[in-house]
């Protein structure tokens, strides 16, 4: 067997007590998890039409129930789930009747990220992130004044290494330029829509740049990582600072022009801005150059004088000098049968052995097998909300093939 032997499984059955002192009663599939004075009630909502799993907090010292601000992508409702407290700061939710890709979710309740957001929102905050397998390489943040050549360098990188890099498509309230496509260069949006989405916690970072709103959604970064690629963000210095303070670990690169005059010429020659906008961008460039070079935020500062020389320096920083970029990464092929569904036992109990969560799934997958053991290995979890918690390992153990592990 690949789970540790000799340790008695600890069974978790959360909601033994289904009524609270203030008369608040749990509904069918809701579970409770206690942390200090707070009981997190997970599942269902007051609005039964809601399609995602709801969260309420019962404060035992005040007997009040609050609905927190919920950040991150929320998991879809399911008929059943199990809840397990991890490290006093996040709760693992195992969805019953789900696919392996959608079975593990983490609700951060007291992590560094949640504490920061509580200060911003001045409310109770919790944040969902989806547990996913494998690691993602650190995203690359590229900043520099408007017209310095960030977009040109990124386009070269993506062209040479199409299988390696993916671009984080930002949201912006500025109007599209002639050749720009919605959803490719930017998600073009209205200010009021974007402001509401910012309030809803959709953005990893956002800033007002040259009079318009720009922002990186959590989803923009995560879809690139989900596709197995390394994410590139083209954002201004304010945005880079916000990313450095977020839970996203990234590499920060600042691009400088050889001189202010050259920067001005490139902006003018590009021909995409009015004179008024050019003046505004140049005024902002002075401040950005000063901050970029002196803030200590950027680990790498490159001068874009000759394009090819700067591109080679960028490749070197990324460890790509001498690497051919056209070969796709081999896909992981799994020869073993894998279960299509994770189904919780009737009593919703799952057992935790060290950092492994074991679930006796009812399975229609394996003929003659009434159940099979499904293991969620949390020993290499990385990152956290917003978005995805990576490094989850999942495998099934065939009850008939002693010791054979099926990677999912
Ligand atoms: N090394 C270079 N030498 C000469 N021209 C360059 C060089 N790098 C970029 N350019 C040109 O400068 C202009 C501005 O480049 P680009 O649009 O990539 O800048 P940017 O930093 O992405 O600007 P913004 O922040 O406004 O999006 C473009 O016309 C591009 O072709
Ligand atoms: N903070 C953020 N800055 C962003 C984002 N997307 C782009 N940008 C920066 O805005 C300026 C202007 O871009 P332009 O396309 O109008 O020329 C440039 O410096 C970009 O780096 C973002 O999501 N967040």
From TrEMBL:
InterPro entries: Gal_Oxase/kelch_b-propeller (IPR011043), GK/Ca_channel_bsu (IPR008145), Guanylate_kin-like_dom (IPR008144), Guanylate_kinase (IPR017665), Guanylate_kinase_CS (IPR020590), Kelch-typ_b-propeller (IPR015915), P-loop_NTPase (IPR027417). GO terms for cellular component: cytosol. It holds the Pfam family Guanylate_kin. The keyword Kinase applies. Its EC number is 2.7.4.8. Residues 137-319 form the Guanylate kinase-like domain. Keywords: ATP-binding, Kinase, Nucleotide-binding, Transferase. It comes from the Eukaryota. It catalyses: GMP + ATP = GDP + ADP. One of its GO terms (molecular function) is GMP kinase activity. It is an enzyme of class 2 (transferase). PROSITE patterns: GUANYLATE_KINASE_1, GUANYLATE_KINASE_2. Belongs to the guanylate kinase family. This is Guanylate kinase 1. It comes from Camellia sinensis var. sinensis.
């Amino acid at each position: 067997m690949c789970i540790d032997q000799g340790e008695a499984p600890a069974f978790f059955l959360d909601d033994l007590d289904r009524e609270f002192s203030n008369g608040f009663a749990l509904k069918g599939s809701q579970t409770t998890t206690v942390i200090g004075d707070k009981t997190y009630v997970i599942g269902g909502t007051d609005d039964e039409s809601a399609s995602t799993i709801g969260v309420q907090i019962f404060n035992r010292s005040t007997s009040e129930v609050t609905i927190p601000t919920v950040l991150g992508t929320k998991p879809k409702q399911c008929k059943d789930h199990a809840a397990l407290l991890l490290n006093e700061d996040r709760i693992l939710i195992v969805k019953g009747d789900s696919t392996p890709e959608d079975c593990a979710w983490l609700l951060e309740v007291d992590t560094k990220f949640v504490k920061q957001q509580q200060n911003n929102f001045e409310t109770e905050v919790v944040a969902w992130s989806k547990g996913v397998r494998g690691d993602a390489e650190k995203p690359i943040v590229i900043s520099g004044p408007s017209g310095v050549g960030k977009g040109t360098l990124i386009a070269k990188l993506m062209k040479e290494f199409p299988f390696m890099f993916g671009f984080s498509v930002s949201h912006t309230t500025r109007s599209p330029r002639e050749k720009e496509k919605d959803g490719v260069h930017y998600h073009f949006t209205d200010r009021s829509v974007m402001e509401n989405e910012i309030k809803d916690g959709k953005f990893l970072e956002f800033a007002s740049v040259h009079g318009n709103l720009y922002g990186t959604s959590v989803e923009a970064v995560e879809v690139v990582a989900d596709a197995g690629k390394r994410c590139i963000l083209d954002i201004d210095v304010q945005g880079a600072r916000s990313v450095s303070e977020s839970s996203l670990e990234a590499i920060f690169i600042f691009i400088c022009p050889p001189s202010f005059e050259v920067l001005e010429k490139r902006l003018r020659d590009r021909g995409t801005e009015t004179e008024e906008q050019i003046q505004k961008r140049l005024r902002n460039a002075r401040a950005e150059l000063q901050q970029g070079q002196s803030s200590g935020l950027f680990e790498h500062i490159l001068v874009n004088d000759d394009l090819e020389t700067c591109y080679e320096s960028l490749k070197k920083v990324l460890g790509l000098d001498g690497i051919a970029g056209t070969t796709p990464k081999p896909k992981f092929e799994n020869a073993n049968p894998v279960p299509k569904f994770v189904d919780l036992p009737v009593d919703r109990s799952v057992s935790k052995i060290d950092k492994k969560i074991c679930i006796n799934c009812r399975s229609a997958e394996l003929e003659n097998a009434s159940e099979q053991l499904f293991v969620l290995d949390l020993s290499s979890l990385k990152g956290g909300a917003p978005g995805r918690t990576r490094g989850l390992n999942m495998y099934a153990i065939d009850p008939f093939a002693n010791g054979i592990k099926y990677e999912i």
